[in-house]
Amino acid sequence: MNLETLTNGMRERVARGTDLGASVKFDFGDEGRIFLDATKTPAEVSNEDKPADCTIKITLADFNALRTGDLDATMAFMMGKLRVEGSMGIAMKLSSVLGG
What we know:
Oligomer: single chain
Number of helices: 5
Radius of gyration: 12 Å
Strand order of the largest sheet: 3-2-1-4-5
CATH architecture: 2-Layer Sandwich
């Protein structure tokens, strides 16, 4: 999936509600980013590059593999394919917004 499709899918998932209560940025490097502000009601999703409580750095290809279950999050983290900056606790709660 491309960035626009992923962004729209995340908007749809958070519109149903999320208890994340934090801001998260998925940083795909040169491929763009998705910023989720779940401190607001309703939560907002954009492609802006804003400071976040937790930043997940991953390639778009690896993010897609993670979403579909072809890549395990723990293995991706241990292999250096996924890096977390900021709150690890927030990163652990992200399954509700990733979707399949």
